[in-house]
Design goal:
Strand content: 15-25%
Number of helices: 16
CATH topology of the largest domain: Cytochrome Bc1 Complex, Chain A, domain 1
CATH superfamily of the largest domain: Metalloenzyme, LuxS/M16 peptidase-like
Radius of gyration: 23 Å
Shape: globular
Order of helices and strands: EEEEHHEEHHHHHEHEEHHEEHHHHHEH
Strand order of the largest sheet: 1-2-3-7-4-6-5
Structural class: alpha+beta
Largest sheet: 7 strands, mixed
Helix content: 40-55%
Length: 458
């Protein structure tokens, strides 16, 4: 579950509005339309391919009780047609030119993308901009799609023991913050979702001044800006609070360890431990999120990482043991350590072994060799990611959507390389403590018999 989320490099900042054009500057290029749509274009001429991503700064963090899952439900409805494009036609047109398209919803944002030959970018822009304002949500399509969403929840969460444990851990770890609600929504809310819920969400959040258009690939920035103005510039902005103006949602301090047991069909127990930790807010002056990132890589960044080396290969107390942390988020962070104990071991024994590894770092720190190896791996992985135009677009969109800048990518990489062994030890000592810890254990229940087994028993 290594879920580090820093991406590689960014370059020089260029700010241009339609009213005032500055001299041409380095890649990527940044623009702001009069209606508030932010556009970031990054040239990559290695192949005649382009990525278009449209990011809306609205995710499950912005939902309220009773309508959990509406952000994800609306994502599904965005493929059901507009007043200009019949249901299914969007996907058919992209596929017809050899392109790919999809979407994703997270706690912090919702994004839509197309990857295709650069000559088809005008068509992709027309299609994507059209559904920014002209979506048609009919009762018939909504009712059918909600059945799809509920089945998705059953398959990905309710019938997946580890996913169910994770969901319940998050719901327990956070007392008040909306991160406690699952992105896909609670089943009761999905069962009672009304078409008006989706329509209201669309009208409120799907507006150019709440969106970021990211274009990466074999494009000419000036020509692409003109296309964007023609496609997206015709829509007016809605009154909507910027990220910095939205009501603060502060999680109350945790004052002791939280524990829960989840019963679900499974072969083996499973353990997940979540510590509350900070995330990046000031990329230049924060240091703890960078140290936490290095710590997660020391524990679970490669085959020689501590959890795998000690718990899996040496003592064999675990079949698997992992750590993960994402420093890029609108809300509070969680540092995760999880694992599956070996067949002759218990979740309690695995927890004690994990605690022992943490204590070793708290008492003795990490070695300079470990630090150098992890830093080299971090730099290499971020560099390799940039071979992909899609990864480049993801880097830009994700940073911008949570309130940072795409320019912060360079700062992040530089700051990661300045982390010291003492700082890694310090964050382990400060944050990997019981007062910020939630522990969830899977109590495996008998697996249901398969249809084949049932047939044989008759």
């Amino acid at each position: 579950m290594n879920i580090n989320s820093f991406f590689g490099f960014a370059t020089v900042f260029v700010y241009i509005t339609l009213a005032l054009a500055l001299p041409a500057q380095a890649n990527p290029h940044e623009y702001l339309l009069d209606n508030g749509l932010k556009i970031i274009i990054k040239e990559d001429h290695r192949s005649p391919v382009v990525i278009q991503q449209l990011w809306y700064k609205a995710g499950s963090i912005d939902e309220v009780n009773g309508t959990t899952g509406v952000a994800h439900a609306l994502e599904h409805m965005m493929f059901k047609g507009t007043s200009n494009v019949p249901p299914g036609e969007f996907s058919r047109k992209i596929a017809a030119v050899g392109g790919k398209e999809n979407a994703f919803t997270s706690r912090d944002y919702t994004a839509y993308y197309q990857q295709l030959h650069q000559q088809h970018l005008p068509m992709a822009m027309q299609l994507e901009s059209d559904r920014m304002r002209n979506l048609q949500i009919t009762q018939e399509e909504f009712s059918k799609e909600m059945q799809v969403v509920m089945e998705e929840r059953r398959l990905r969460t309710d019938d997946q023991a580890h996913a169910l444990v994770y969901e319940k851990l998050i719901a327990t770890a956070f007392q008040a913050h909306p991160y406690r609600r699952p992105v896909i929504g609670w089943m009761n809310d999905l069962e009672n979702m009304q078409i008006e819920d989706a329509q209201d969400w669309y009208k409120r959040w799907y507006t150019p001044n709440n969106a970021i258009l990211v274009i990466v690939g074999d494009v000419n920035p000036k020509e692409t800006l003109k296309l964007a103005q023609e496609s997206y510039g015709k829509f007016q902005a809605n009154h909507i609070p910027a990220l910095s103006e939205r009501k603060p949602q502060i999680e109350p301090p945790q004052t002791g360890i939280k524990r829960l047991v989840v019963k679900a069909p499974a072969k083996l127990p499973y353990l997940i431990m979540g510590y509350k930790v900070p995330v990046l807010k000031d990329t230049k002056n924060d240091w703890e999120p960078y140290a936490l990132t290095i710590l997660s890589e020391v524990l679970d960044g490669n085959a020689a990482a501590r959890l795998n080396k000690t718990l899996v290969r040496s003592t064999r107390i675990a079949i698997s043991a992992n750590a993960g942390y994402s420093a890029i988020a609108r809300g509070p962070g969680i540092f995760y350590i999880d694992g599956t104990p070996s067949e002759d071991k218990t979740a309690h024994e695995l927890e004690q072994a994990i605690r022992s590894e943490i204590d070793t770092i708290v008492q003795s720190g990490i070695t300079q060799e470990e630090l150098a190896r992890v830093k080299a791996q971090v730099v290499a992985s971020r560099t390799y990611q940039l071979d992909s135009t899609f990864a480049q677009a993801m880097q830009i969109g994700r940073l911008e959507s949570i309130g940072l800048s795409h320019l912060d990518a360079n700062i992040i990489l530089e700051r990661l390389q300045t982390v010291t062994a003492e700082q890694v030890k310090a964050v382990a000592e400060k944050y990997l403590v019981d007062d910020s810890l939630t522990v969830a254990v899977l109590d495996p229940q008998p697996l249901a018999k398969t249809t084949a087994q049932n047939d044989q028993s008759k």
